[in-house]
Structures are given as C-alpha cells and as structure tokens.
C-alpha cells in the first residue's frame, strides 16, 4: 500500500517538526498538519520563519523547503481527515487536573475527541497512527470508537511514539536511534498497515533502525524510555547531594561511571532538576497505570524518581536562601535561563518556575533573562501555580532583555538553563555591578568555577563541595 496523503492532527512541538521532516524527505507524499488553534496555524504559515511557533535549530530550513510544496498547515480538520490515507494523532496528553486519576493519569480527552472527529469525517479506509505518548492499551479505546461509526469504513491502528528531544528535534528526526512502529501483527491488514508506515520512514531511515512490535509493547516502550531517562537524572542528582557532603565531585563521578560501556555516559549530568512537558507527566502516568493494576511496589519505585526531582529543585532554592543569610526578602536575585533546557523556547515544567516560586514566597525580587522565552510566558508559568495573585507575581518578578542589566545590583545569580552564551559573558563586568559578596548558584555546572572565584564570586555548583 502506498501512502499518498498524510494528515496530522496537532501542530505542536511534535506534530509540526515531525511532519515537516516527513514532507521534506518524502516529496511525493502530501502532508497536511491541522490544529484547532488558529494562532498556532497562522504562525506556522508566517512568511517570516523566525515567527514559527516552535523554536528548533534547523526547523526553519526544513519548513522553507517543504511548505507550499507538499506541506500545508491549516485548521480544516475534517477536510484533511477525509482526504488522507494515513492520520497521525499528535495532540497533547497532559496530566489530568480533575476527577479520577487527578494529578497522575494522562488526560485523554483530546485523544478521544480526535478519534471521534476521525470517525465522523472518514469516508474511506484509514490508517490511524498514535504519535502522542499514551498509556498502554489506549489503542483499544481508539479502536472501539472507530469501529462503531456504522458507515463500513475500516481502520488500522498503529502506535508510533516519538523519541525526539526538544532543542535537537531536527537532528533526532533526521537520524533517529530507532523508529518504533507497533501494530496488529496477527492479521494481514495489520502487517500491511505497518509496512506502509515503515516505507515512509525508510525514505531516509535505514530499515534496521525501524523496529516493529505489537501495539502494546510500542505504547509501553515510550513510557519506559522516558522513565529510564528521567531515572538516570534523578539518580545522578541524588548522588550530587552526597557529593556536596563528602568532597566527592559529581562531574568526576559521572565521568568515572559513564566510561563503563554498560552504563554509558549520556544523561548523567547533575542539574537543578529535570523539566520539560513529558518526563514528569509520563512517569506519573506510569505510576497511575501500575496502581490501577494493583502493582503498588512497582508504582512506588517509579514515583521516587519524581520525588527526588522535587527534592532537587527545592534544595537548590533553599541553598540560595541559606547562603544569603537566611533571608532573601527584598533582595534582587538574577535568573539566567527560564527554559527547561537550552536551545528551546519551551518552559513547561521548567525547574526555573519552581525555584522562582519558592524564592518569591520568601519575598525575593527576581529578574529573569532568557534568550528565547518571552515575559508573557514567564508570567503565565508562575501564575499557573496559583501560589500568589497575579499582581504580586508582577511586583516581585520581571523579565529583562539584557543579561548584564538583569544581573546589575543583584545579590545573587542563579543559572537555571544551560544556554551556551552564559559561559562567554563578561563575568568581571557582571561582578563589578553586583552587590558584594556576589554569589553565583550554578544549577547546570556550566560556568568555570575557578575563574569566577578568582574574580571574587562565591560560587555554588551542584554536586561539588
Ligand atoms: N514535546 C515533546 O518533545 C514530545 C512530546 N511527545 C508527546 O507528543 C504529544 C504532543 O506533544 P506536543 O506536541 O508537545 O503538544 P503541544 O501541546 O505542543 O501540541 C498539541 C497540539 O494539538 C492541538 N489539538 C488538541 N486537540 C486537537 C484536536 N481535536 N484537533 C486539532 N488539534 C488539536 C492543540 O491545539 C496543540 O496545538 C504528547 O502526547 C506528548 O507527550 C512525545 C515526544 C516528544
Ligand atoms: O517524550 C518526550 O517529550 C521527550 O522527552 C525527553 O526529551 P526532552 O524533554 O525534550 O529533553 P531532554 O534532553 O530529555 O531533557 C529533559 C530534562 O532533563 C534534564 N537533564 C537531561 C540530561 C541530563 O543529564 N541531566 C538533566 O538534568 C534537561 O535539562 C531537561 O530539563 C526525551 O529525551 C525524549 O527522548 C522524549 O521524546
């Protein structure tokens, strides 16, 4: 079966870049990305590629090549479903904020809505691909909705989770470690549908890197991959606290264990805590699924990864307060970085938000500089926590477009994101304009500690005494 037209529901961080790369690599496949969010679609169609709604290095070039050729962004969900042979569901699946499973389960209302939209609009057979990260066995619910349309159309449901990381999305999509495709391996039609998707990816991904499994393994592998990655960060962060008490150095420990090929050297960077839209949400979801199957010990095991992460963010904030003589009331603290990692404008679950919230509750005055995050986003993030009212948040926190201004007159600087440019700042100039003793809290271990100490800074780096 040769796919001619693809529709992707959801033009977010995953749907946009993923479909742009598919369109670029498969010029004979027509790709339409739809979204109910008109502003987002408008931004995807903006002539000025600097205004794309997602910032990812290299994305602008891919969009420039494919958009208008075989890549289209629009809000006509129904029309795009009708004409497509293959429909990707790439909508958000956040943690539920209400009802049963509140605070843990994935909220699948947008997924169900997509299934219903597909069921209502489809007039011919379709392959439906789960691209969103979903609890294991979600395909069962999607199938149930699709198979009860009553108009005789047939659907094959595949799971094709996305493993891209933000900031390196284009690189990851161009040369993935693997592509995972789960489907109904017990029927001809199921295998045929899987092969159709394999063919799309095989336009640029070597066949041996495209793994096929049953649909449940594929769904669960995505949650498992994120749980393992986050667990590594929590493990190294747990040991960073021990290092601070023992004069061991976490960077040396990471290097020492990372050279063991069984352990590997990636994801061993101690930090102020992991953020991002998925690690926490996916682990909470895993914990919830385990609990619903009565697997209490398994659930508790994975929950500890989140608890450790919360502890790490909290202790970073507490350490700032302690070092500033146990009070930050009225003191200016400069934040370098607000995004959850470098090279992205995404702030979802960023450690910076929680550290800021902790310090604001102690009446600190925070000035934030981030090269890619806008002030409205920072306020939206801090307001969302509902710890204090919006007026107070704006009184206590502001954003500053110049890093040197942000640091001027500050008692302390906290590095919350590992943006490369922070390393090359004129730290002497920053020091000269700060209150003394000038303190730096490096939550990402990116700055040259010895150099800063020579200038006169007091420096705290995660995981070093
Ligand atoms: N952000 C990331 O780096 C990664 C995310 N994922 C998963 O991919 C999924 C999507 O994540 P993001 O792209 O980050 O989310 P997002 O929130 O950036 O984008 C989702 C989009 O879907 C749209 N949408 C929701 N319901 C719709 C409907 N019925 N019809 C049309 N549009 C609709 C929303 O308006 C939104 O623009 C999630 O399940 C996430 O866990 C997986 C790998 C990486
Ligand atoms: O499902 C998802 O959304 C994605 O989640 C992560 O990608 P992402 O969250 O974009 O970014 P990561 O590079 O994984 O970083 C996550 C967080 O962990 C932190 N981190 C990462 C690595 C490390 O060694 N130390 C560390 O503190 C980062 O600073 C960041 O806050 C996974 O890496 C992707 O494979 C997955 O597709």
UniProtKB/TrEMBL annotation:
Source organism superkingdom: Bacteria
Protein name in the entry: UDP-glucose 6-dehydrogenase
Reaction it catalyzes: UDP-alpha-D-glucose + 2 NAD(+) + H2O = UDP-alpha-D-glucuronate + 2 NADH + 3 H(+)
Keywords recorded for this protein, A-Z: NAD, Oxidoreductase
Known EC number: 1.1.1.22
Entry's transmembrane regions: none
Pfam families: UDPG_MGDP_dh, UDPG_MGDP_dh_C, UDPG_MGDP_dh_N
